[in-house]
Design goal:
This protein is an alpha+beta fold. It contains eleven helices and 19 strands.
Amino acid sequence: MNRTLPEMEPDPASLPIGTKVGPWRVTGWRGRGTSGTVYRVEKEGEEGAYALKLALHVGDERFEREASLLTRIRSAYVPVLHGQGLWQHRRGVFPYLVMQWVEGMPLYEWTVSHQASSRQALRVLARVAQALGDTHEAGGVHRDVKGDNVLVQGGEGHPYLMDYGAGDYRGAATLTWQVLPPGTPAYRSPEAWAFQELFWRHPTARYEASACDDLFALGITAYRMVTGEYPPPTEPEGEGAEVWRQEGPGPRPPSALNPRVSPELDALVLQLCAVSAMERFKGSARGAAQALEEAAQSAGPGADRALGVKESGVPEWARRSEGSVWEVHRAAPTPAPVVLFEEGEGWEGERPVEASGWPQALDGAWVGSVAAVVVLLLLVPMVSGLMTRQWRPEVSEGVWVEWDGESRDGGVTAMGDSAATAPVAFAAPMEASRLRPGLGLPIPEMPFPGQRKPPCYRSGEAEIRGGCWYELARVRSPCKEDAYDWKGACYVPSFHAHRTPTSGQP
């Protein structure tokens, strides 16, 4: 007897061309981040392209915060917000934003392809600093400045500071419970990491990102732009991180890695990367923009020499901290492997054929156990993704791989948000239709991996379902999406002291 298969609903992560989202029709795809996918769209009856960023999570409150921040900013170097709305879906309501469409190249790619000079780099960086100045004057912070969040147009270099999904502004609601705010670890300031070292076990301590953090991230971006390499990691456990300690010397000058960097550019990049927050133009992005522009105008003929930057090998620490293929691994303390699956007779015929990123000296039996757990974890989203068209075959012989739109810098649409930093639930996600309206996630039946188990003797801990939890003071149900609901109160899990801090990984 023939059966008619039900028509599959479009998935927010991979909408087909022609899909309608409100009055907007999808005409192309741009990129995907942790919690949003960007599409090229057009509006019925109008000419011109727009960028539509659609949430990957039902009712994602970060989209409302991003829209509120963008409406406050007036800048020639920040995309204009044209609208926002809600997309009805069987799984729930997905928010979306519609912004100015920007045709451009990611900053590092633009630098290489245009063989940019020191003078051009100074001007582009001055304009990005101007975008930050406009953001700060509007009461906001970007919190995820990096090369892939800067798109540059044309040979003259008109940059746009993209992706305010990790941004914040005065008076905005707190949406995450981690010590560090959203962001990309490779670009975090030394003072942010120092704060986490002191307070990562504290259940309510929160680091407040400032203009100095944005300027430091711009400094790391500039360093990578003009040398093709990153300075030593600012994360305290990283190799060479001692240069960022208080009273430390900071990184080597960019000119030590690339002699073509002009003295003016060299000095300003180092000032942006200063160990002391107040040495970064006293927290003034306007001051940084002015200094960069003046240097571009006054620099000698040597500043017109091409920097000669090539896409060099990114250090392993930066590769690990800037993104991984599997979202489920982004909160893991070890590097995430890229696991490929060989196509077989249905899903049961698949087996992992390649895994990279795991320590080589590990015992074989331990690796086998971990691999079994990884495969089990991946099968849940894999089957779900098959039903909703999240998985797509790559152009390779007999291989399926998880499709990922991000580069190793985190991607143009990388959100760097709490969805990537919340504890990993080893269970299938609960559909929104099974939750009461406005209610956060229920506490799982079993503790998370690495979560403390009874006796729960730390101050403020409570024992719930075999695990230790902290109650968020003065926060009642309904909980935000990265806290868990239990009997009308909101809780976050308690982890062991030896657990490697992961709260900032995107």
